[in-house]
């Protein structure tokens, strides 16, 4: 249930509603908009919720049942878009976020070189995995903490904030020391212990949709993170598994407008993992931006054929520069910038 306060509600009115919520055994989550404050009732309590009890309180405009199982992540509860701060810019605002870099951090020299090239080419953040979720235990698993140190050095040299994956709840604290954004990979979207740990971290999280998960399940995973106190969540559509074999996954373009309508969180598109072939990445990136994505995360490497992971879907520098130029045109066409 949510309690929508009216425009003239005083701080005292809001405090009284919060006390009532707590006395009823629920947690009160505040969403303060420019115009009005919304108080969400979350959690379980033996006290049944009665709309009437709240409706008659001073300063209350209306009381509504939230019809979706995710509350904190829903648009109903938080009508204004959430803007996630990142290195001085706000994701979810007009400018399209451009996260670029290799699938894996391969060496110190490699990541520093790519970081500077990405900055030069117009990227707004650097990606690179130090802990890699590989389908085969025999494939390159990443350089671990050493890779994180190289990423931190790449940030110093390029000024780009770092997006990197964390796979283990026990390593969240360590990854937070180096990263600006914690990526939860598709395979871990429903690793609830991990979601709990990043929820307590207060670090910005890029939550990727699982290979076979619905949008509702993605939003429930966002709710896990948010219910542990971290509201800095970005959703990521990275393709889902279908019967189609000519691409690695199928990019669900529907997810962009639907997630934006259902949730106030920024939505990022990953065309690289969605299609799996570099020659299609730019087309899917353009479609995602046209559909309203707040950002892109794209794999780039100076020599994709030599990449230690995901080379087939990775753009080279020229292809990335061409993508950026075309994304800028699409962004401008829909009243945004990139
Ligand atoms: C990645 O970003 O390199 C990655 C492994 O992504 P996903 O979890 O979407 O497969
Ligand atoms: Mn990858």
What does this structure look like?
The chain is α/β, with parallel strands linked by helices and 338 residues long. It folds into 2 domains: 2-64, Alpha-Beta Plaits, CATH 3.30.70.1140; 84-333, TIM Barrel. The chain contains 11 helices and 14 strands. It has helices at residues 11-23, 51-55, 108-121, 145-158, 172-178, 192-201, 215-227, 255-262, 271-275, 278-290, 317-333; strands spanning 2-5, 27-32, 37-42, 60-64, 84-86, 89-91, 97-101, 125-127, 162-165, 181-184, 204-208, 233-237, 267-269, 295-299. A hairpin with a 2-residue loop joins strand 5 (84-86) and strand 6 (89-91). The protein is elongated. 46% of the residues are buried.
Features:
single chain, 338 residues, alpha/beta, Alpha-Beta Plaits, TIM Barrel, 11 helices, 14 strands, binds phosphoenolpyruvate, binds manganese (II) ion
Globular, elongated, flat, extended or rod-shaped: what is the shape? elongated
How many helical elements? 11
Instruction: Identify the CATH architecture of the largest domain.
Output: Alpha-Beta Barrel
Tell me the Rg in angstroms: 21 Å
Written as H for each helix and E for each strand, in order along the chain, the element string is EHEEHEEEEHEHEHEHEHEHEHHEH
The total count of strands amounts to 14
Our measurement of the CA-to-CA distance between the termini, rounded to an integer number of angstroms, reads 38 Å
Reported by name, the CATH topology of the largest domain is: TIM Barrel
* CATH evolutionary superfamily of the largest domain: Aldolase class I
Bound molecules: phosphoenolpyruvate, manganese (II) ion
- CATH uppermost class of the largest domain: Alpha Beta
Q: Roughly what is the average pLDDT, rounded to an integer?
A: 96
Name the helicity range: 25-40%
Strands in their spatial order, largest beta sheet = 7-8-9-10-11-12-13-14
Structural class of the helix and strand makeup?
alpha/beta
Total domain units: 2
